[in-house]
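Let's practice the habit of predicting before peeking. Look at the sequence and jot down your guess about where helices and strands might fall. Then scroll down.
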Amino acid sequence: MGTGILQAIGENLQFLGICALVVLAIVAVAGLVEAKLLRENLAKVKKTRYITICAMLGALAMILHLFDFPIPFLAPGFYKLDFSEIPVMIGAFYLGPVGGIIIELVKILLKLVVKGTSTAFVGDLANFVVGCSFAVPASIVYHLKKTRKTAVAGLVTGTVVMTVFGSMFNAVYLLPAFSKLYGMPLDVIVGMGTAINPAITSVNMLVLLAVAPLNLIKGVLISVPTMVLYKRISRVLHNTAQEQVPERSHLAEG
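Done guessing? Here is the structure:
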């Protein structure tokens, strides 16, 4: 019993360490891109206001995250969709990719405080990483030249990256980690998919026929409201912020 407990603690600590490394790696890459490619195109927001915007949008994202829902005809019930990436995307479009990551992290941390975890933290890591894989590339493309066309191109790019990366991350790491930490054999997880779609007979097929379509649906569900809302919300943020250099284009051009 003692050995089993120590092993479980070790596995959880290892998983948390990997989570921390993933967060740091994502922030480092986004920070480097901002410094090297986007420095002249980012809105100059005072530090206190930057923090306030991240906290406010992160809290809103957390509330939306609480209302997640499964798509039972497509994937097992532990895969869920929500609209929490809309505030994340709006923040990433306004502040840049690092801002989007911070908002995503605030969302996850607040959700853990309010609701805890039902997936041994694996689902929370997945939501953070997959959300960042959408928001970061979308924000980078948009900030290269802020027009409606680049906003659309960014959202399409983010959807493609999220679908490809999210699927690979599930197959290579998340599903095996969920199986180990949650004590559910991979065969059982695959069987949950088989019950929905008989073509799902392996982890790879589960990812191909369930995870990838879910991420594509998520990309559309987030992209359309972002395009509709961002222009309006960015005007409010502009009018209430005292910025050194105003953001010039947003989604009105192009």
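How did you do? The beta strands are 69-70, 80-81.
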